[in-house]
Amino acid sequence: EPLLKEVLNCEAATVVNNGMPSLIALDASGVLSPEIQDYLRRYRPGAVHMIGGAAEGLVVAGRTCNLLRASSADEAACMLSARFWRTCATVVICAEDDNEAALVAAPLAARGRVPLLFISAQGLSQRAVQELRRLQVRELIVVGKLAGGLQSLKQVTGKVIELAGACDVMNWVRARKLRVTYLAALNPMDRNKDIIKKLSLAGALLAAG
Fold first, then answer.
1. Cα separation of 170 and 190, whole Å?
2. Nearest Cα residue to 198 out of 40, 8, 4, 14
3. For residue 2, is pLDDT > 60?
4. Could you report the per-residue pLDDT of 160-187, keeping only the tens digit for each?
5. How many whole angstroms from its chain centre is CA 16?
6. How many contiguous H segments (helices) and E segments (strands) does the chain have?
7. Whole-number Å distance between alpha carbons of 3 and 193
8. Nearby residues of 61 by Cβ (< 8 Å), 6 or more positions away
9. Average pLDDT of 181-201?
10. Residue 105: Cβ within 10 Å count
């Protein structure tokens, strides 16, 4: 779940910064290393948003962090959507337990400047349904395979597009003649298995930009 929240940050950071995301992943302590502090001083952010953690009142580069307290990726996604979008005709959806799909869905949502929301095996949460209604969504793009199928989503909006994986997303982008100048490659299985864990987040961030 922490990785999903970081992926959400990737997508929101891209939208807020007009296609040029800046995202920093911290551990639960919220401690900023000297290298990160130096980067932030040079970057001079106008605002700093942090999801979760216990860093109440954390000051970064002279800016007090806007702390978004969320107990789940679903809650964090809805909070980010409510904060940064008034309305949006399209929303990207992926399963909350599918990290590989999330790593693909986040850059797709960022590219389209649209929210990314999550769905569980039991379907959309009441919170997510309310957010979709508030956004006045007309189209849902589902990345990955959903255990419960698409029927529950079709009750929210009539148009649901399913993109099973990265290749399907690439074909969808090409079919719509969206400009692609580079590809970002990553290992979606690095959450627990590799020596340097969650390095795939950097790939998602590169693809989002």
1. 22
2. 4
3. no
4. 999 999 999 999 999 989 888 888 888 8
5. 12
6. 8, 8
7. 14
8. 37, 40, 41, 43, 44, 45, 48
9. 74
10. 28
Structure tokens at 132: 């979709």
**Amino acid letter, 184:** A
Instruction: Taking residues 41-60, report their average pLDDT.
Output: 73
The span from the CA of 20 to the CA of 115, in Å, is 16
- CA dist 88 and 18 (Å) reads 16
The span from the CA of 202 to the CA of 159, in Å, is 32
Residues 160, 77: Cα–Cα separation, whole Å:
19
- b/e per residue 107-121 (b: at least 16 CB within 10 A): bbbbbbebbbbbbbe
Spatial distance between the Cα atoms of 136 and 89, rounded to a whole number of angstroms: 6
> What are the tens digits of pLDDT across the range 136-147?
999 999 999 998
Residue partners of 95: CB distance under 8 A and separation at least 6? 101, 118, 119, 120, 121, 144, 145, 146, 147
Q: In what order do the strands lie in the sheet with 116-119?
A: 116-119, 90-95, 139-143, 159-163
In order of 38, 60, 95, 209, the CA distances from 41 in angstroms are: 5, 8, 37, 21
